[in-house]
Amino acid sequence: MVDDQVPQFADLLKQLFLFQGLNEAELAHIVARFQPYSFTGDKEVFAQGDEDNMFFVIFKGRVKITQADRKGEHLLSVFGAGEYFGEEALLFNRPRSATVTTLEPTILLGMEQGSFYDLIRDFPNIRTFLTVTADSRHMAQREKFDWLGEDEVVHLVRRKHEVFLLTSLLLPLFVGLISIPILAYGVTDLDSFINPRLLLYVGIMGIFISIFWIVWNWVNWGNDFYIVTNQRVLWVEKVILLYQSRREAPLTQILSVNVKRTWFGRILGYGDVEVRTFTGGIRMRRSASPILFAAYVEGFKAHAGYLLKQAENEAIRRSLQERLGLPVDSDTLWPSLQPRWRRRSGNQPQPGSLRDFLNTLFVVRYEEENVVTYRKHWLLLLRKTWIPTLLILFLVGFVALQFEDYLAGSTSIFASFPMFLLYAMIFLVLLGWWTYGYLDWSNDIYQLAPDQIRDIERKPLGDELKKTAPLESILSLEHHRDGIIQLLFNYGNVVINVGETRFIFRGVYNPDQVHQDVSDYIEALSRRKREIEAAREREQMLNWLLAYKSQIELYELIQTEKDWDIFPG
Fold first, then answer.
1. Greater confidence, 178 or 302?
2. Which of 205, 222, 239 is the last residue of a domain?
3. Which letter does DSSP use for residue 329 in this model?
4. In 3D, which of 331, 335, 329, 273 has the Cα closest to residue 310?
5. What are phi and psi of 45, to 5 degrees?
6. What is the pLDDT of residues 335-392, one digit of tens each?
7. 78 in a domain, yes or no?
8. Which of the four pLDDT bands, split at 50, 70 and 90, describes residue 189?
9. Which strands make up the sheet holding 232-239, listed edge to edge?
C-alpha cells in the first residue's frame, strides 16, 4: 500500500457503518490489513461459484452484482464507493453466490481470508453487522423490492417481532377449536333441538374462517418490513387486496432516531423506533432488534452525510474542469444519494391490464411510477353495495339449498328451466347493481404526484370531474376523523388548502399517513428545487472564478506589454 494513500483509505473506512466507534489505533490496525487493487471498466472481480475468498470495500468506482440461474443472468444491485462485498462466502464458508464486475475504472480495498477472520474475532460487533446484512440482502432478493434504485443497496431488513404474530393467531385458533366439536356434533346427527345440518354448516364455516384468518394474519405479518438502505429508511406495509404503503425518509434528512421499549419489550427484544425528519417522521412499531435498527440508521446517516459532502465537492471540481477546458475524469467517484431508476421485472403488469386491475381491485392505497393513488375506505364501498351484496348472498344460499334438494331427488327450481332462468336473470341484475356501486366507489380517486395533487371523480356512464393543483401552492394541511366509526376503522378526511381552493380527500384510510405522504412529497419537491438552486449558485461561482481568471490573465498580458515598452527590441 502506498503511504500517501493510507490517510485517504482511513478517511473512507472511518465513515463506514462497520467501523463506527473504533478509535484511531484500532482503525489504523484495520487499514493496514487492506491492500488496494485497481481494475479497469468491465473487469470481472470474481465469478459465481469461485472459491477464492476475499473481502472487498469499494474506494472509488462502481461494480455490478449479477446472479445466474436457469432463466439467465439477473442484476441484483450496483455498489458504489463505501459499499462492501464478499463477506458472505467468508462468513458461511461457501463459494461465491454471485458475479461481481466493474462498471468503470475502480479501486477496491481487499482483505485476505486470514486477516478477515482475525478482524471478526477481534471485533465481534463487525461480525454481527456483516451477518445481519448478509441475511437482510437475501431477504430483499427473495421479496424482490422493485422500488430499489440502481445504486441503492439494502443493509438491514426487519419485521415486527414474532411475538405479535403469535398473539394475532390466538383468536383464529380459538375459533377453529370451537368449530371442531360443533362440526362433530352435526356429523353424529344426534337428537337435538338444533338442526344437525345447521351445526354441520356452522362447523365447516368456522373451520374455514379460522384457516383463512390464520393465513391472512401470517401473510400480513410477513408483508410488513422495516428497511435501511444506503440512501433511506423505509416502512413497507401491505394488506392483501386492501392496502399498499411505503413510507420513507432520506438519510440526509433525518434529524434524530429514538427508541422506546416497554418492560416486556426489553425482555423479549422488541420496541418502537422513531425516525424524525424535517416534515414529521416514521415510527417502526414493535420492531424486532430496535437497538440494532437504530444503530444502523445512525451509522448510515453519518455515512450518507459524508458521501453528500464528497459528491458536492466532486460536482464543483468537475464543473470547474469543464469550464476551464481541462480533461474530466470518466469514472464516478461518489454515488448519487437518490435512486436513478427503479428495477422492474419483465412480469410487471402494464397500466390498464387485467392483472393490474386485479392487483388493485379493493386496494385503498397503491403506488405506480411515483404516483400514489388513494381510494375511499372500503366501508364506503360497503355503504354503496350492502343491499345488492345481501341479496346476492341470500340468493346464492337459497340456490345452494335448492341444488342440494335437487340432488336428493326433491322438487326444486332446477326441475323447472323457466324458474332457473328467472333466478339467473335476477342474479345478473343484482351483480350489475353491485358492479355499478363498485365502479362508483373505485372511480373516485385522489392522487399524489411528484409535482401536483389530483382529485378525480367519475360517475359510471356519466360525467367526470378532475381538479389539480401544484404542490408548491399548498398553504396548509389538516386531517380529522369524525365519530367513533371513523376512529375504530381509522379513516377520515384530509383537507389541503391551496390558495382560495380547498381539496378534501374524503373517507381515506389512515389519514395520518396521507397527511404525511403529502408533506413528504412537498419536502421532496423543495429538496429538488434546492438542488437546482445550488447548481445555479455553483454555476454562478464558476462564472465569477472564470471572470477573475480572465482579469488576471489580462492584467498579466498588460504588464508584459509594458515591460516590452520599457525594453524595445
1. 178
2. 222
3. P
4. 335
5. -80, -50
6. 444 444 344 443 444 445 566 666 677 888 888 878 889 999 888 989 889 999 999 8
7. yes
8. low
9. 154-158, 225-229, 232-239, 243-250
pLDDT digits 0-9 by tens, 52-64: 789 999 988 889 9
Claim to verify: residue 10 and residue 115 sit in the same structural domain: yes
215: cell is 393465513
pTM for the full model?
0.72
DSSP 444: -
DSSP states along 184-248:
HHHHHT---SS-HHHHHHHHHHHHHHHHHHHHHHHHHHHT-EEEEESSEEEEEEEETTTEEEEEE
Neighbours of 62 (CB within 10 A): 22
Phi, psi of 448 (to 5 degrees): -120, 110
The phi and psi torsions of 70 (rounded to 5 degrees) equal -65, -20
| Residue 517, C-beta contacts closer than 8 angstroms, at least 6 positions apart | 247, 372, 448
User: What separation, in Å, do the N-terminal and C-terminal C-alpha atoms of the chain show?
Assistant: 56
Residue 249 lies in a domain: no
- Residue 109, in any domain of the structure: yes
Residue 534: alpha-carbon gap to chain centroid: 28
Residue 331 pLDDT > 60, yes or no? no
pLDDT at 3: 54
At 29 the pLDDT is 87
pLDDT at 202 over 90: no
Burial class (CB in 10 A: 0-12, 13-18, 19+), 300: buried
Q: Name the amino acid, one letter, at 309.
A: K
- Confidence class of residue 410 from pLDDT cuts 50, 70 and 90? low
- Domain boundaries, position 46: 1-122
Q: Which CATH number do you get for residue 42?
A: 2.60.120.10
d(C-alpha 555, C-alpha 281), whole Å: 56
Q: State the residue for C-alpha cell 464516478.
A: 332
| pLDDT tens-digit map of 24-71 | 888 888 888 899 999 988 899 999 888 878 999 998 888 999 988 888
Q: Are residues 2 and 117 in the same domain?
A: yes
Number of domains in the chain: 2
Domain match, 199 and 117 both = no
Answer whether residue 147 is part of any domain.
no
